[in-house]
Design goal:
0% strand
Length: 376
């Protein structure tokens, strides 16, 4: 046995390991965004874990508590947003005079449901008298919409699959983040024990590189959360301040809620807070036009739009974010990573761009000088 066959025989286990690693990458590639979000969740929960570790000794409970402290405020914000949205929708419907459904097969749906609730007794169920429970008017209503049942099934199926996909990915994100938080030190010890030569060559360059990357990613990702909180506070303050001087027809509705939405939307690539501020100003514009108050208050409308663009969107996003969430990487490069990453990778690119920039920065500042250094 000689030549390439002998070489292949000698490194057969290395080849087998390489195949397994490639297989792992192939399986994990469709879940790249899930893994990136889990890494982001890991780094923003890591400081919380560090603070709570002296008081909570059980590792699994500590990690669960950290994730709970992160997820619960998010659920409260979503619930509060939905409640306010429903309230505002009812107000709009009432203002447009759409309190009741137009005449049609489903115009008496509320009375039909009420009748079914009153007839849903144990006596009717045990006797099999389902005609008394479900009135004929409901059959007539459904028959009137029978032509749309197939389309309705498709919409329901597509919506259901979307919800299932989102819930599944959220579950994966939480599971991956949970095990990263709980077993991060164990993973580091395993890597050191498995690759002792690799970790100690060139004056422990790999350990120094990994430590620098870990510290910077924690600063950047946790800084992003601080940015969301800070942006939300600034936006809510500006909205409330504008409401003090605004005419009645130009009042900003739910300023605290809109401030929180501005903070969260700051992470959305390219459009950012525009997904909140543009509908807001369209709403104010329509309300003012309907009330005939736009022309007399046109100057205030322009000043209000300028104040929001400058103090809510531009200054916090392009001046404060790079300094609050930059670590040791260059501020200008981090700004480009925040801009170009989402264009290439979508929403997850906001984090992928930062990860790639940190990896490259510390490779050229730590690894390359160490491996090219001439021996003494």
């Amino acid at each position: 046995m000689s030549g390439i066959f002998k070489w292949a025989y000698d490194v057969k286990w290395l080849i087998f390991g390489l195949v397994l690693v490639l297989l792992l990458f192939w399986v994990a590639w469709p879940f790249l965004t899930v893994i990136v979000y889990a890494i982001f969740l890991y780094y923003i929960a890591k400081p919380i874990k560090r603070r709570l570790r002296p008081y909570v000794k059980n590792g699994s409970f500590l990690v669960t508590l950290c994730l709970f402290l992160l997820v619960l405020p998010l659920l409260l914000i979503i619930g509060y947003t939905l409640l306010v949205a429903v309230y505002q929708l009812n107000a709009v419907i009432a203002g447009l005079g759409l309190q009741s459904l137009p005449q049609g097969p489903l115009s008496n749906l509320s009375s039909t449901v009420s009748h079914a609730q009153q007839s849903l007794t144990m006596e009717n169920i045990m006797s099999g008298n389902f005609s008394a429970i479900v009135p004929p008017s409901l059959y007539q209503a459904l028959y009137g919409y029978s032509g749309s049942i197939f389309s309705l099934q498709q919409v329901v199926f597509a919506t259901g699959m979307t919800i299932v996909d989102i819930v599944f990915k959220l579950f994966l994100i939480l599971i991956i983040a949970f095990y990263l938080l709980r077993d991060d030190e164990r993973l580091k010890s395993w890597f050191k024990a498995t690759f002792p030569v690799l970790t100690h060559e060139h004056d422990d360059v790999l350990l120094r590189y990994a430590r620098a990357v870990d510290e910077d990613l924690e600063k950047i990702f946790f800084g992003n959360i601080l940015c969301i909180v800070f942006f939300a506070i600034v936006a809510a303050f500006i909205f409330n301040l504008l409401n003090v001087f605004a005419p009645p027809t130009m009042q900003i509705p739910s300023p605290i809620l809109l401030g929180m939405l501005c903070g969260v939307s700051a992470l959305v690539p390219v459009v950012g807070m525009y997904i909140v501020t543009v509908p807001l100003f369209l709403y104010i514009l329509i309300e003012s036009l309907a009330a005939g108050a736009l022309i007399p208050n046109a100057l205030f409308f322009i000043l209000m739009a300028a104040a929001v663009v400058i103090f809510v969107q531009t200054l916090p996003d392009f001046v404060l974010r790079p300094f609050m969430a930059r670590g040791k990487v260059n501020t200008g490069l981090l700004m480009f990573a925040y801009i170009l990453g989402p264009i290439v990778f979508g929403i997850a690119g906001l984090f992928i761009g930062a990860i790639v920039l940190v990896l490259l920065t510390h490779y050229f500042t730590i690894v390359l000088p160490s491996i090219t250094k001439k021996p003494a």
